[in-house]
Amino acid sequence: MSLQIPRLLFVGGKGGVGKTTLSSSIASLLAQRGEKTLLVSTDPAHNLGDIFEKRLGNEALALSENLHAIEIDPRQEVKRYIQAVASDTKRFVSANSYAMLDNYYQSIASSGVAQESALFDRLIRLIIEPDSRWDRIVVDTAPTGHTLRLFTLPKTLKEWSKTLLSQQERGGKIESALGHLSDSSSNIMLRLEERYLRYSAFNNRLKDSKECGILFVLNPEHLAIEETKRALHSLKHESLKPYALIINKIMPPSHDPFFAKRGESQARYLAEIDEVFKGERLWKIPLQDEDILGREGLGLIVHELERCLKEER
Questions:
Q1: Among the residues of the chain, which ranges form H helices?
Q2: What residue stretches are annotated with the ArsA/GET3 Anion-transporting ATPase-like domain (predicted)?
């Protein structure tokens, strides 16, 4: 594969365009090329297991010699995340307040914000772990809005952690001057420093085009095109550029009146895509005549991806 593929690939796009199928196919292709590949789903509506016809979970499962997959479970991650936060918080309150704190954290555990934060925290750990055994990581994300937050949140959390760290350092200096710097304060400092370094490392990785690539999947349809336009505009605001756009489910020519009319509609949208996204790397994948399931089904898309890569040589 002469084309330089980033180590970390995020696959996003409008719901229903084929993100999971393309994520799975890209990961399969990389694995077939001898790359130790981890495929991660951050979409609560997990479909990876259905495509590979395997029961996936919160830990990496081997699908082949070079391919492993994880479906991150938001509920498990929220539980772990909130337990860690609650443990820190309890260091600063009396035992009489523990029950109230537990009730509070239980009440926010089901919130979308808590689940997204916990999922994001697990994803970062997978990506930046220093002893990572993965040559490539492919992330199958939830629909576009969630994908974009993955790229804006690190910067925000990095600054937030930096602010908290500065405040804690000032408080620590006062405690130290008074001669009673507590173990609790030291532990909180260590956690904040660890979090700041983690977010900084992830943010730097997102900005490195050789390290991180963003692929958007779209169909030759009006709504998918408009959503992709907005997504690319948001990325540009963050000084990010997509690695490639994958136009999926392109219909073949047909003599049937209905399908011929649909084909004409797609042809107009394909022309629009060529014009609107001029200068972007465009990979075009035809509509398949059967569901993409298992290794054999994915092989059909892998073949098309190989064709796209060869055309760029």
A1: 19-32, 48-52, 74-89, 98-108, 112-128, 144-178, 183-207, 222-237, 257-276, 294-311
A2: 7-303
Task: Reply yes or no on whether the pLDDT at 185 is more than 60.
Answer: no
Give the DSSP letter of residue 92: G
Greater confidence, 102 or 156? 102
Which pLDDT score, from 0 to 100, does residue 175 have? 41
Which residues 6+ apart lie within 8 Å of 106 measured at CB? Answer: none
Task: Give me the mean pLDDT over the 209-214 stretch.
Answer: 90
The residue among 83 and 32 whose pLDDT is bigger is 32
Task: Give the domain 8-76+112-311 fold.
Answer: Rossmann fold (3.40.50)
One-letter amino acid at 271 equals A
Token pair, residue 102, equals 């537990």
Cα–Cα distance between 211 and 154 in angstroms, integer? 16
Share of the chain above pLDDT 90, in %: 49
CB atoms within 10 A of CB 312: 10
Structural domain boundaries in the chain: 8-76+112-311
**C-alpha dist (Å) from residue 269 to 141, 220, 226, 262, 275:** 25, 5, 11, 11, 10
pLDDT, tens digit (0-9, with 9 covering 90-100), for 250-265 = 999 999 999 999 999 9
Cβ proximity of 144 and 13 under 8 Å: yes
Where b means 16+ CB within 10 Å and e means fewer, 140-179 reads bbbbbebbbbbbebbbebbeebeebbeebeeebeeeeeee
